[in-house]
Design brief:
This protein is an alpha+beta fold. It has one domain: Bifunctional nuclease domain (Roll), CATH 3.10.690. Helix content is about 40%, strand content about 30%. It has nine helices and eleven strands. Strands 1, 4, 5, 6, 7, 8, 9, 10 and 11 form a nine-stranded mixed beta sheet that branches. Strands 2-3 form a two-stranded antiparallel sheet. The longest helix has 15 residues.
Length: about 230
C-alpha cells in the first residue's frame, strides 16, 4: 500500500485526500467478444490489472483504446502520432510530466480515474477514463494505483479465471510477453496449450497478432477464414 502524494480532489461525490492506494500493474490485454462472430471479436478488449495479492480487476475498454494500449505495451510506435503520443509530446515541450494514474471509483459499473500531472510548480489532477490514463501511463512509464475499495468490489481470484477462461492461453493476449504468460501458467502448461491448439484457435491467434501490428488488410483475410470455419 502506498500513500497518494497529497492528492486532494473533488470528483462528483468522491472526495479523495491522502487515500491509501494499491499499486497495480497491467497483466495483459485481451480481445473480448462473441467467438462465433469474428466481426464482434475485437469490438471490446479486457485489461487485467493485478495488485500484490492474487487478484485481478478486469476493465473493459473499446477497440481503438485497446489497440492503442497494446501498441504502447509493446513499445510499437504508430505510423502517425495518436492522441496519446501527442499529449505526451505536448507535456514534454511544456516541461510538464505525468506522475501517476489513480483509478479511484467504480460507480454503476463505470471506472473513474485521474492523472496527476506535474506542471512546473503546480500539481494538476485531471479527470480521465482509465483506458486513456493507462495508455498515457504506459507511454510515460509512471505507476498506476487503485482504490482498495475497487479491488475489494471488482477483484477476481486469478486462479478462478485461469480455470474458467481461455483468455490466458497466451495465444490471444496482446501486449503480454512470454515471461508474464509463464508467470500465469508455467512454461510447461503454455507449451502444452500451444501444441493442442485447433486450426480455429491458431487463426484467432494470428488475427490477434495482425490487429496488434495494425496489419488490418491481412487481418480481414484471416477474419473471413474464421467466419467460414464457424458457420
Amino acid at each position: 500500500m502506498v500513500d497518494a502524494r497529497g492528492a486532494h480532489m473533488q470528483l462528483g461525490n468522491e472526495n479523495l485526500e491522502n487515500e491509501n492506494l494499491i499499486s497495480v500493474r497491467i497483466l495483459g490485454i485481451y480481445p473480448y467478444g462473441d467467438p462465433r462472430d469474428p466481426n464482434q471479436l475485437f469490438e471490446t478488449f479486457l485489461v487485467f490489472l493485478k495488485g500484490s495479492e492474487d487478484k485481478v480487476v478486469p476493465i473493459s475498454i473499446g477497440r481503438f483504446e485497446g489497440q492503442a494500449l497494446a501498441m504502447a505495451m509493446r513499445d510499437m510506435p504508430p505510423v502517425r502520432p495518436l492522441p496519446y503520443n501527442l499529449l505526451k509530446d505536448l507535456l514534454e515541450k511544456l516541461n510538464g510530466e505525468v506522475r501517476q494514474l489513480v483509478i479511484h471509483t467504480l460507480k454503476e459499473e463505470v471506472f473513474h480515474a485521474y492523472l496527476l500531472i506535474q506542471a512546473e510548480d503546480q500539481e494538476l489532477l485531471l479527470d480521465c477514463r482509465p483506458s486513456d490514463g493507462m495508455t498515457l501511463a504506459t507511454l510515460t512509464g509512471v505507476p498506476i494505483y487503485m482504490s482498495p475499495k475497487i479491488m475489494e468490489e471488482a477483484g477476481r481470484e486469478l486462479d478462478g479465471l485461469l480455470e474458467k477462461s481461455d483468455l490466458f492461453d497466451g495465444s490471444s493476449a496482446l501486449g503480454i510477453d512470454g515471461e508474464q504468460v509463464a508467470e500465469l501458467q508455467g512454461d510447461e502448461g503454455r507449451e502444452e496449450g500451444e501444441e493442442n491448439m485447433s486450426e480455429l484457435e491458431k487463426l484467432k491467434a494470428q488475427l490477434n497478432r495482425l490487429v496488434a501490428e495494425e496489419a488490418y488488410e491481412e487481418a480481414a483475410k484471416i477474419r473471413d477464414l474464421i467466419s467460414q470455419l464457424v458457420k
